[in-house]
Amino acid sequence: MAAAPSPGPLTPAQLAAFHRDGYLLLPGALSPPLITSLLAETTRLLSTLDITTHPLTQFHAGDTNHVGDAYFLSSATNISFFLEPSAFSPTDPPVLLHPPARAVNKIGHYLHALSPPFASLLASGTVGNVVDVAALARQLSFRDPRCLQSMTILKQPGIGGAVPAHQDSTFLYTNPPSAVGLWYALEDATRENGCLSFLPGSHLWKGVEKRMVRKEGGGTEMGGGRGGAPGGGEEDGKYVMGEVEAGTLVLIHGNLLHKSERNTSEKGRIAYTFHVIEGEEEYDERNWLQPPEEGFTRVIRD
């Protein structure tokens, strides 16, 4: 007989839906005052960007070879800014066409340690944070959950690019795969401004066939993965649109295929996300993102 799941924030029906579909929408996970605080922190961080000293590292969704500079590869332990390609002119050299704060695609990847407002989401008892992450991790059967790759994602009005279908385990690979994403909507995410879409159940049949690794001599590339899963699904199947209100938490299984479209509206879409992996599984030196000296942040503390 299987052991009963640990108590946590999910009902039995919600837990079953997550295991079946590979994702789960949890409205009202953040209170309005906490959302306001996290948006204010995002604005504060943007104000610290000095574009004159920035290497102009861009984030190209679906393209892994651009992310090989030292600025990107050292971001696991820093608060770094990655720019939206559509914010630049097509000229050589490119010219930034938007104010810096309106040109940022992502801020990451160590917000959960270096930004107190975002770090508070890992702490039990944070006012306005309805979902206790440690209890959730226990409920999902993590033994030694570790937090990594936290970032604010800004799908800028009119220029926020599409993100093609992908699996988060490709970028945060453990053997066997264990990643779960926690994606918090800080603004409403709609069809018009590029909300997430999911291929339900794809985590059950889509194995991790490739992984983003560091190349010898610098840069990154897609290498072979391990950890296949039973076949039987279609990658071009019907995606389900995940329109959500601000304050919603979206859980995403690391093997689930999901994507988002370009923001064609004049309304931005800001989200905060981090991932949890099983600390007892193999996480090797080939992964692009490497842990700080003290290791990835423990979610359940002694």
Automatic annotation (TrEMBL):
Q: Which InterPro entries match?
A: Phytyl_CoA_dOase-like
* Name of this protein: Phytanoyl-CoA dioxygenase
The answer to whether UniProt assigns keyword Transmembrane helix to this entry is: no
Annotated region Disordered: where? 216-235
Name the domain of life.
Eukaryota
What's one Pfam family here? Answer: PhyH
Which family does the similarity line name? Belongs to the PhyH family.
Q: Which ranges are annotated Gly residues under compositional bias?
A: 219-232
Checking Gene3D superfamilies in the record gives:
q2cbj1_9rhob like domain
Q: What is the lineage of its organism?
A: Eukaryota, Fungi, Dikarya, Ascomycota, Pezizomycotina
Which molecular-function annotations from GO does this UniProt entry contain?
Answer: metal ion binding
Q: Does the keyword Iron apply?
A: yes
The protein's required cofactor(s) are namely:
Fe cation
Q: Which UniProt keywords apply?
A: Iron, Metal-binding
